[in-house]
Structures are given as structure tokens and as C-alpha cells.
Amino acid sequence: MTVSTAKYDRRLWLSRIMMALSLISAVIGILALAIILTTLFQRGFAGINAHVFTEVTPPPGAEGGLLNSIYGSLFMTGLAVVVAMPLGVLAGTYLAEYGRDARVAVLIRLVNDVLLSAPSIVIGLFIYEVMVKQMGHFSGWAGAMALAIIAVPVIVRTTEDMLRLIPDPLREAATALGAPRWHVISKVAFQAARAGIITGILLAIARISGETAPLLFTSLGNNNWSADPNAPMASLPVTIFQFAGSPYENWKDLAWAGALIITTAVLLLNIVARLFRNPEAKR
Amino acid sequence: MSVADEAPPTAPMNAVSRRFARIDSSFHNITRFAAFAVFGVLIGVIASLYLGALPSIDKFGLAFLWTNAWNPVTEKFGALAQIYGTFVSSALAMLLAVPIGIGIAIFLTELSPWFIKRPVGIAIELLAGIPSIIYGMWGLFIFAPVLQTMVQPYIIDTFAGVPILQDLFAGPPFGIGMGTAGVILAIMILPFIASITRDVFDGVPPVLKEAAYGLGCTRWEVLWNVVLPYARVGVTGGIMLALGRALGETMAVTFIIGNSHKISPSLFAPGTTISATIANEFAEAVGDMHVSALIELGLILFAITFVVLLTARYMLYRAEQRSGR
User: Fold this and answer.
1) Number of domains in chain A
2) Least CB-CB distance to B313: which of A25, A110, A120?
3) What is the ipTM of this complex?
4) Average confidence score pLDDT of chain A
């Protein structure tokens, strides 16, 4: 009697084909990243020179830089973090330390998830309604607030996750020594979860520094030098959007230079955040 | 077991413990206030969008959802083209990104040697970190011209005369349009699908896989009959999260979708999405009704992503229950 291997061969080949397809998928993913980064670096470096960092955005055809946009981005991102950090860390603390499995904590966790996945342009509309419309004009304040609202849920989420990784016996030990609750949280839990919380904040900064949509109609953009947060303020993403869509070659070059600056900053933040995360916290 | 809630003070308190108790309760209150502020933001978003959209809701009613009209001059607005574009571009993106994303997850969990696993994983996650405006620029300046000159004319010629397909791939080749937006969206959500799927696959108990291998299954049969059914709910949840991203994505789409308020069956034709319309028109909106209609678009988008998110969360929750964490 001969054993037919035809059926087994067919199964084996199907398996090999599917595995080859999965290998191809991985190659596609890597290639996409490689191609995007290569063109970004080529075009970006072609557009970068000393003027980019020292001069303000030029009129079409003239020489200029991105100084006002870089300043605006730094200012609004910085202000957003200053607002979002305490709010996010405290709310995350409530969820992890006080709320835990209480019904209200479950609800707030869900609400936080909704905000986390809300389209950023919707947040822009919200800030337009409550700030720009009330103040009567676009402003750097409004842009910063829009960014802050996008950063808060990111920080809440990571703070809570990181605090929850801290084993309870640590808290119980401190409590047994007579430490009051706020002491247990600030001196024990925060210390133990510090690296993770900082990671969350860095990731939040990375997330908001590339955001464009919420700034379009809150800070609007400004082609002159302006450090007045009460006036429309330039930002790198909005300038890129405006310049990339224009027909002027020098504006397009500046857009690529700006794109390179932002991407480098965001990817560096991502990498630094990854280095910060302690190994145990890795999910 | 959690730390006990504030123990009621028993012994007469001295000054220090009274101070501690005071700080304790104010700290508790501050954190609670912050948590409720998060809740307040959501209420604020919904309320302000609703109020802003009210004039448009009053004027157009529910017909706003299925009317195809967008004319700021005559103030006639209907969101059908935007809603259509939002769903079609996202559906295209899912069609491309789901198989490739799951493929990457299979590669990472089953195939790759350990020294490739980490770099590939990091590369995929970096893809998620690139700001969306960069994808938009890249799509407009690099990807669209390639499509326009090298890919689209060829596809249009090939399918000319084939029923259905000739409508789906009808010319002229603009480079930008609905299909291009779908492809760029697919690249953007790929990392989400890949990393969530990988995590879910990693959570499948090795015993199950070993048992299947022991019965003589091939690698693919183990994946198809054991890993995927086990991970189905979790993977679907991850896919829904990615779908939420795609639906709300603004800048990349604004660059490459062509911003036309016409509904066309062709994937090569320009279209628009809810977010792209808001991004393009809001700052220069003429008239209160135009602004209000744009805000109503935002409200619709928020409602759509809200439902998608709830579904995703529910599925991931069920997956978690099952894996017994």
C-alpha cells in the first residue's frame, strides 16, 4: 500500500503561501515607513538652511524662514502641557487610587476613552465655540487649549495604567507605617510609577506637536512675527498645511523643511519616551 | 484588595493628624475634581456642538443626513456627499489595512526570529507616530503623481469595457481622489491594527497552539483554526479602534481627496469627507448658516466615532473577560 502525500503537500503549500503573504505584509509596512522617511529627509534637507530658524515666514518668492511658526508651536505645545499635565495626572490618580472599580470611575474611564478617540477636528470646533466665538477673534490661547484637551486623555490613561501596575502591598506597607493617604500616593505610588507617567506625558507631547486640525480655526496662523498669545498665532503644522497647498516653490520648500523638523521632533520624543519606560511596565 | 478607604478617626486627634486629615481630604477632592473635569469636557463638547449646530438642525432637519447639496451662496446644505466620502474612504482603508495588519501580526508572533521581532515592531510603531499632515504631504507630492502617471492610466485602460469595474475605475487620472485617500488612510491605521492584533495573538495560550501542532496541523491551520477564532473578538475590537481613527482623520485626507462635493462611483474621482470639508471651509465660512452646517457635520462625525468606539470597547472588554485577566 502506498501512502499518498498529495493532500498533506497541499496543506503544507497553503501554509507556506500564507506565511509568505504575512512576510510580504511586514515588508510592505517597513517599506512604507522607509519610503516616507527617505523622501521626507531628501526634500526636507533640501529646504533647510540657517534662515529657516532665524527668519519669519516670507511672502511668495522671497527668502524667509519658519521662526514664527516654530515659536508658536513651542509656545502652544508648552502651554498645553502645563495645563494638561496636572489635570491629567490628578484625574489618572483619582481613577487608579480612589475610584478604582467604583461605578463613577468606570464611567469616567469610558468618557476618557471617548475623548481619546474623538477626532481632533471636533475638539477644534469645540474650542472655536467656547473660546474663539466668545472672545471674538482667533488666538494662541485658544490653540493651546485645544491642544491641552487632546493631551489630557492621553495623560489620564497612561497615569492610571502606570499607577495600577504598582503592587498594593507597597501602599499597604506605607499605610501600616502610619503614612496618610496623600503621602502614600505622592511619596510611594508616584515615585514607583514616575518613569511610566513621564512616558505618558512625553507621548502626549508627541501627539499634540503634530496636530494640525484643531489649530486651523483656533490659533488660525500668522505670517508675521507675533508673540502675543491674544492674537492669531503661527504654528508649524498650520504653516505646512498653508504652504504645501500653495503654488509657490519657496513656500513648498519651507513646508518640507517644516515637515522634517516636526517629524524629527515627534519621532525623537517617541524614542525618548520608549527609553524612559521601565522594563516591568512593558505591556 | 484595595487600600482601605479613609478610616474614621478614633482617638482624639492632635494638631498634626488633624492637618494630615485635612490635606488628605483636600487631595482626594482635587483628584476627584480633575476626574470630573474630564467628564465635563465631554459634556461641554457635546453641548457646544449641539448648540452651534442648532440653526442648521432646525432648518434642514433629519434630511440633512441624506440630502446631497452644499451651496454656501444659496445656503442649502446636506451632508450626503461628506458622509458617503467618510465611509467609502474608511472602508477602502480597512479593506487594505486589515489583511496587511493581521499579516504583520502573524509575522511578528509566529515567523520572525527574535532579533528581527523588536526592530520591526518598533518600525511599525514609529509609523503610528508620524503626524498625519506628513502623510498628507507625502500623498500629495510623492504618491499621487506616481499614481497619476504610472498606475491609474494603466488600470483605466485595462478595465475599460468591463462592466462595474469600468465605473469603479473611471478616468481621468487625477492622482488625488477617493482611492488615493483610502490608500494613505490604510498606511496610517496599519500600525494600530498590527500592534493590537499582535498583542491579542500573544495572549493566546501556547497550550492551545501546541495541541493543534501535536495533531499535525500546519502553521496556517493552527492560525486559522485555533489562534484566529480565539483572538477574534480582540482583533475585531482593535479593527474598530482603527476604523474610528480612519473616520476622524483630517489632514491627510484633506490634502489628497480632492475636495469635491460630488458623489461619484469612480474611486479615481475626487470626493470629500466630513473632516476634510470642515478643515477646508470652516475658517473662511461665509454666513452663520454655513458655520452652523459645518458644526453639524462635526456633531455627526463625533456621533459616528462615538458609536464605533463603544463597539470597539465592548468587544475588547469581552476579549479580556475571555482571556481571564
Assistant:
1) 2
2) A110
3) 0.90
4) 90
